[in-house]
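Reopening closed ticket. The problem is back. First fold of the pair:
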Amino acid sequence: MRCGDFRETYREDMAIFETRFARGLLAAFLVALAFAPAFASYFWMDVLNRILIAVIAATGLNILTGFTGQISLGNAAFLAVGAYSTAFLAGRLDLPFPVVIPAAGLVTAGVGMIFGIPSLRLKGLYLAVATLAAHFVIEFTASHWDSVTGGVNGISVPAARIGSFTISGDRHLYFLLLPLAAVLLLFAKNLFRTKTGKAFVAIRDQDISAEVMGVNVFKYKLLSFGVSSFYVGVAGSLLAYQAQIISPENFPISVAIDQLGMIIIGGMGSILGSIFGAVFITLLPEVLRLVTGALSDTWPRLVDLFAPLRTGMFGLAIVLFLLFEPDGMAARWHTIRNYWKLYPFSY
């Protein structure tokens, strides 16, 4: 019986899922998710769709911040670029969603790389402020470019379609979101097994040393902004298809803060952490809403306190994770797995 790490070939060493049991468990989990619409209510289908969109967006932010070390507060703005690109391509040009979604991602990647140019000279808090400026620039553009974005009144997005088949409603949209999220997560996991991904990590750990070793720091920083923004743009496109009507109010700065919280709580520099964080932050307000609703008969004023309670719990969760689990939920899972020798669950 194997105990611990036991690899005999490079193929085994490079495998994402180290055991057949882990691969089988993942397959069973995906099958269970595929059957979720048969049992979930309309409310929980909406929650599941929002979780999948958040997973894609958080993974994009983690590529930039967690793996490359470039702090960004521009995720809400890049979500907006992806969403408005979708509205234009699908609504004005009448393109099908297999073309619209990657095209919206590429448009967002281009915008992200433009705002990533200052990353050559700026680091840390200064870079965060530069990406925050991107948020206000894009928010102003979305509010005043009425002919394209609809201005403050917003713009409608037609349902996703391919040929004569239309994907409408949360249950149908779920079967678009689930495989797309799985593919993007697999790509992100494999990205950091390549030369490009290792260059990202080298820049995060010590950019000067990486440059001395021959890494083109500026090139890979820009590429990191591009890949990250592509993910966020795809998430924005899917958000537009789900919401069907978008306006600048859909993309406040709090969205960027929420997604930063996702990777802090889930674990920076971890694809699994992006999943954990997105699930936690998306479910937190729903759990609070259910609790406050259940207690509303006993304490009627509790419903009025929901908004500040949500904000307070969000802030408290981040503080507690920074104090007691700074590496996030993914690191805690690895600790539990290693302590209890759950090696069949290795991935």
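Second fold of the pair, where the issue appears:
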Amino acid sequence: MTAPLLYADALSLAFGRTQALAGASVEVRPGEVLALLGPSGSGKSTLLHCLAGILRPDGGEVWYRGARLDDQPADARSRLRRTDFGFVFQFGSLVPELTAVENVALPLRLGGTRRRVAEARAREWLDRFGVHDVAGKQPGEMSGGQAQRVAVARALIGGPRVVFADEPTGALDSFNGELVMEELTGAAREQGAAVVLVTHEVRVAAYADREVEMRDGRVLPAEILQ
């Protein structure tokens, strides 16, 4: 079997007296779409944030491409999020002061790509997702479905190895939610990127290759790493 691209082993994390993770373990295989399912408060988003190096667990380990991730300094984890990871969130994913094309081009610009080149590639992604007509608009001037497709384009433009999607359809109606999921999973699979998808909706989880379920900060036993 192929070695995991990313995995968490026995993660624990508390926010004050609230135990968000209580020994959660999960693996993400190269190129797969993995859905983290569970009710609100089960620890799904916290686990995603630990996998992405945004949060550091109190206990346990996170490994990415054979190297320990959670004990790296903040600047190293931040650099990894720019180069290897892409993100789509439910709310507030786009920079409100930037236009759609500037938002999509942002990961390339942060990596040192010249503005003209970065924005030309951004326009290609906007066209691919059918939102080329909002290229010059700011997020407040877009519909929710348009803004989320722009966010997906931004997550994928840099060719990430892993895309983290936290309730990416939570603010959308069913039609736009399905469009976003089709575009996200289709483009990720074309690029060979893995997707870690947090959702509480069965219809959204249906786009995944594999599902794991969380309760009370733990991954249910069938998916715990051995």
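Update: turned out to be a display glitch only; the data is intact. The mean pLDDT is 92. The first helix runs from residue 44 to 51. Please close again.
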